[in-house]
Design brief:
Glutaredoxin, globular
Length: 200
């Protein structure tokens, strides 16, 4: 009898584990949906709300300075160059750091060392990261002027950084199409990079 109860309990635990879903599953946003609003503080202590940029095209970039994928892209100037290029056309670039152990000072240090013109928003609680279903660093989101998500996924099609040219930058392509008043051709790709180090 005791063994039977024990086996039953083991199966209940096994089934619970098999049916468990990640914290972001079921909550992640989707292309075509309205981008969820949020308010975060940047590395300088300034409060920034997504609603501050109503009517503008916005790029959200999830970042962790410790991640080798992020380091590679910042060494190459991938995000910085895109932000500068499209910034002249009114596109807003917001970087979000949901890394549990990185505070405003850590973000400020990274921003200064890379001479970034755009803010790094502190999300140590992971609330906004979970709201958007951000899984990797980098994980990219493009929001059009109507506030809808039009692209979610990887920055480009070169995960290992060793692809022969040409490299397709999905974010650049999406921004070009949005700014031209066209529908985005590639709306979703699989993000690559380090897993977001969320607070448990």
């Amino acid at each position: 009898m005791k063994n039977s109860i024990k086996h039953t309990m083991i199966w209940i635990v096994v089934l619970a584990l098999l049916c468990a879903v990640p914290a972001t599953a079921g909550k992640a946003v989707a292309v075509g949906e309205k981008a969820p609003g949020f308010i975060l503080t940047d590395s300088a202590g300034e409060e920034i709300s997504l609603s501050d940029f109503e009517g503008k095209v916005v790029v959200l970039e999830w970042l962790n300075p410790d991640c080798p994928f992020v380091q590679r892209h910042y060494k190459a100037g991938t995000m910085k160059d895109l932000a500068a290029k499209f910034g002249t056309q009114g596109v807003v670039w917001l970087t979000i750091n949901s890394t549990k152990y990185m505070d405003a000072a850590a973000n400020a240090k990274f921003k200064a060392s890379n001479h970034l013109s755009y803010p790094i928003l502190v999300d140590q609680s992971g609330e906004v990261g979970h709201l958007y279903g951000a899984m990797t660093t980098p994980h990219m989101y493009v929001i059009d002027g109507a506030g809808q998500l039009v692209y979610i996924g990887a920055i480009d099609d070169d995960p290992r950084g060793n692809k022969d040219a040409p490299i397709t930058n999905y974010v650049a392509a999406a921004l070009d199409e949005v700014l031209a008043g066209k529908a985005v051709t590639t709306t979703e790709t699989k993000p690559y990079g380090c897993s977001v180090k969320y607070k448990k």
